[in-house]
Every structure is written in structure tokens, then in C-alpha cells.
Amino acid sequence: KELNILAISGSLRNQSSNTSLMHAMIKLAHTNLKFEVYDGLNDLPHFNPDLDVEEGPVSVQNLRAQLKHSDGVLICTPEYGNGVPGVLKNALDWVVSSGEWLNKPTIVIAASPSPMGGDKAHASLLLTLNMINAQVLQEGCLTIPHITLKMNKQGVIIDSETQRALQNSLTILGEACNQIKS
Ligand code: FNR
């Protein structure tokens, strides 16, 4: 069965390792997973409940529609200042009360050049996703320390253990999405 996965990178940087990792995962995935890359983080206004009116900002409508039409979500994110990148948290703030993420199978991968692997951003993101009742697949969630040693500049995963772990995460995501669809 074909499954639609919304892929979100929490980094706006052109040479982002997390964006490269997201694309590497898309290549690793089984062909029944059809990925849509979300590219709207930079277009969202700062979250303000006053703007959250019917027919609100188009960028917000788009985010919500893309989430609604996805069967599952993949997030790859860096950590800034021991936390979730503001642009990513901003996107989450826009969907806290709108409900599109409810029961949506979701995996979170945090990658960092540091030995800690972005663990604080990872944990913080899971707190928010659990609060909005996403179906966070704990076994599929990963922190990847030393990302620069595990993926080369061309975005190829050069560490076999990391590749296996990422493949396993994608399998877990696919299985959870399948269960909901069937
Ligand atoms: C960082 N970085 C970082 N890394 C980390 O593991 N924990 C942290 O708290 C921070 N904080 C932080 C703050 C600022 C201002 C910068 C510029 C960087 C390093 C970060 O992980 C690294 O730059 C990654 O390469 C960013 O991810 P992308 O853009 O490569 O996906």
C-alpha cells in the first residue's frame, strides 16, 4: 500500500546535515513510502493566536493541509542552544490546537556533530509531540552524534550501523502507518 510521508527538516541552512540526512532517508526507504518534503518553515509567520482565525495565513493553511493528508511524519532536526530550533517549534505551535497531528505516526531524528547528538532538542520535541497526541514511535526515534563522521559531504551515509538504524526507523514508521490505514 502506498503511504504518504511528510518529511520536515528543522534546519534552514543550505548545507544542513539534517536536510541531507532527511534526503538520505528518503532514498533508503521502501518504495511504498511516498515522501513530500515540507519547505514552508521559512514562510510561516511567528505564532500568534490573534492570527489564527478562519482563513488565516495561507502558509499555515498549507502546513495543516499537508499534515492532514499525510499518513505519517519524519522530522530531522538540529539542536540550537540545547533546544528545538525556533523555526521548527514555531511550526509545531501552529498545530498544537488544530488537531492534524492527532494519532499521526511520527519519528524524530536529531543529528549533531556533537557527541550528544542533539539529545535535548530531541527530548523537547517529543514533549511537544506527545502533548499534541501525535503517535510518536519511540523505537523509531534516534539521536545521531558525530553526524559529520557518519555522513559524507555528498549526503551519503558512510556508517553501516547508522544506515541500519535509519532503515529500521523507516520500517517502524511504515508499519505504524500501514496499521492505521488497514
Ligand atoms: C549549534 N550547534 C549545537 N549543537 C548541539 O548539539 N547542541 C546545541 O545546543 C547547539 N547549539 C548551536 C547553536 C548555534 C547558534 C549554532 C550555529 C550551532 C551545532 C549544530 O548542531 C551544527 O551547527 C549543525 O550542523 C546544525 O545542523 P544542520 O544545519 O547541519 O542540520
UniProtKB/TrEMBL annotation:
Residues 4-146 form the NADPH-dependent FMN reductase-like domain. It holds the Pfam family FMN_red. InterPro entries: Flavoprotein-like_sf (IPR029039), FMN_Rdtase-like_dom (IPR005025), NAD(P)H-dep_reductase (IPR050712). Belongs to the azoreductase type 2 family. This is NAD(P)H-dependent FMN reductase. It comes from Paenibacillus xylanexedens. The lineage of its organism: Bacteria, Bacillati, Bacillota, Bacilli, Bacillales.
